[in-house]
Design brief:
The complex is a heterodimer of chains A (about 270) and B (about 210). The mean pLDDT of chain A is about 95. Chain A contains seven helices and 14 strands. By secondary structure, chain A is of the alpha+beta class. Chain A has a single domain, classed as Sulfite Oxidase, Chain A, domain 2 (Alpha-Beta Complex), CATH 3.90.420.10. With about 210 residues, chain B is mostly helical. In chain B, helix 4 packs parallel to helix 11, helix 6 crosses helix 7 and helix 10 packs antiparallel against helix 11. Chain B is globular and about 50 Å long. Classes of the chains: A alpha+beta (about 270), B mainly alpha (about 210). At the A-B interface, loops of A face helix 4, helix 5, helix 6 and helix 7 of B. Chain B: Belongs to the MsrQ family. Chain B: Its cofactor is FMN; heme b.
């Protein structure tokens, strides 16, 4: 069986591929706060209270403080983005997100010139997030981006899916989406954003730095120590679907390749 | 317990072999008909692999059940071993044919990815066991048959380690399996030491 060469274009922000179904996107999730099984989040995330919700923005910003979700949403432009989504486990989907560019939120808080990185934190609420009662990861979940990655117009905070409110298992009410990086970078249910001068230590890197780096850009040439990243299985293809070739930066090389000029991506993985 | 043992003696082993066909047939049907979720290949691969490990572990329960509970199920041990091997072959086939698909990547995975190397080693160790599971081989190999079949211990340990390693992070479920395997091996330790010191090989049972 030959590997299918992906046939898609990125037109504006959207891929021309057919999105996965709502059913697929909401029933196959990695959200270890609700359990490690792919169907655990769909089963257990219903208990999460997402209203009221606010995001603490602190660190190197001009206007630190607690930003209410409603307040944020009244000041940003919600857009639909049909993004490719590639998990580090070598499966992928196409997802029609609704959300706004992260740079809009960062502008609300006013990033100081000394800031170089953005650190994100997921809600820690073990009474509603049963997975957090076990030390599978060092809770709360933390992710990070370099400031230029965070300001890139492809980087969004998603608030919805298929025009509907974001389901809890997908990271309600507010999650990061960085389409050229492995899925675990797209941190869910964000409650805290910190602008900092130091590279944040993201949770998966802290758990196993040999397997998960800070950048985690989709890259078929750099293997995960336990499996190849050269190909992926597109969810929804059924039992007899062929694997697809994985594309560098998940197909967004034209848009983001310049961010990594001169870097050795096999070392900065 | 005697009644249980008498009852067990009356049950033939062939229904076990026949029944063993049901789970993989069901998984395949469920996968094709969309009842195994949105990633049916992984679901089939993992379910059949886990089933193989479970049956292999069950086959290791037979000796301690006899020793500590007096329950004699030894006539079912060969069937359990062969069924476990059958499931592991299917697990491997799903991985090769439906999951990875690309021959060069399959070969690269086997020698480059430790958890796959380990799983593969466990499978390779089981081949001579399956190949010598018929009565004539048991007779021909004599006491060497028993020595050869000690390979089941490294095989099941490697299987358990394979399960732990394929998950992201240290997850509870595979660690429980590995703990169970360790317990089953420890239960064998004292008597093994006793036998070795006496130099006596107990009579081989042929069930």
């Amino acid at each position: 069986q030959a590997q299918d060469m992906p046939k898609f274009e990125i037109k504006g922000f959207d891929t021309t591929e057919t999105p996965n179904t709502f059913e697929e996107i909401t029933n196959y999730n990695n959200f270890y706060e609700f359990g490690t099984g792919k169907d655990d989040p769909a089963r257990y995330a219903g208990s999460l209270t997402t209203d009221p919700w606010s995001v603490e923005i602190d660190g190197m910003v001009e206007r630190p403080g607690s930003y209410g979700l409603g307040d944020i949403l009244s000041k940003v432009d919600i857009d639909e983005r049909i993004y490719r989504f590639r998990c580090v486990e070598a499966w992928s989907m196409v997802i029609p997100w609704n959300g706004f560019e992260l740079n809009q939120l960062l502008d609300l808080a006013g990033v100081e010139p000394s800031a170089k990185y953005v650190r994100f934190e997921t809600l820690y609420r073990p009474e509603e997030m049963p997975g957090q009662r076990r030390p599978i990861l060092d809770w709360p979940y933390v992710e990070g981006l370099r400031l230029d990655e965070a300001m890139h117009p492809l980087t969004i905070m998603a608030t919805g899916l298929y025009g509907q409110e974001l389901p809890n298992q997908n990271g309600a009410p507010l999650r990061l989406v960085v389409p050229w990086k492995y899925g675990f970078k797209s941190i869910k249910s964000v409650v805290k954003i910190t602008l900092t001068g130091e590279q944040p230590v993201n949770t998966w890197k802290a758990a196993n730095h040999r397997e998960y780096g800070f950048y985690s850009n989709v890259n078929p040439e750099v293997s995960h120590p336990r499996w190849s990243q050269a190909t992926e299985r597109r969810i929804g293809g059924g039992v007899f679907a062929s694997r697809m070739a994985t594309v560098k930066f998940n197909g967004y090389e034209e848009q983001v390749g310049a961010l990594y000029k001169g870097m050795d991506l096999s070392k900065e993985y | 317990m005697d009644r249980l043992n008498r009852f067990a003696r009356r049950i033939p082993t062939w229904p076990l072999y026949l029944g063993a066909l049901i789970p993989p047939a069901w998984y395949f049907y469920a996968g094709v008909s969309g009842q195994l979720g949105v990633d049916p290949v992984k679901a089939m691969e993992h379910k059949i692999g886990l089933l193989g490990l479970q049956v292999l572990i069950a086959s290791l329960c037979i000796t301690p059940l006899r020793r500590y509970a007096g329950l004699n199920l030894i006539k079912f041990r060969r069937a359990l071993g062969l069924i476990a091997f059958f499931y592991i072959v299917l697990h491997l086939l799903v991985w090769i044919v439906l999951d990875v698909q690309i021959p060069s990547q399959i070969i690269a995975d086997i020698y480059k990815r430790p958890y796959i190397t380990i799983g593969m080693a466990a499978f390779v160790l089981m081949i001579p066991l399956a190949a010598t599971s018929y009565n004539a081989a048991i007779r021909r190999l004599g006491r060497n048959w028993r020595r050869l079949h000690w390979l089941v211990y490294p095989a099941v340990v490697l299987g358990g380690v394979h399960f732990v390693m394929l998950r992201k992070g240290w997850q509870l479920e595979p660690l429980l399996y590995l703990g169970g395997i360790a317990l089953l091996l420890v239960l064998r330790l004292p008597s093994a030491a006793r036998k070795r010191s006496r130099g006596v090989i107990p009579q081989q049972s042929r069930g």
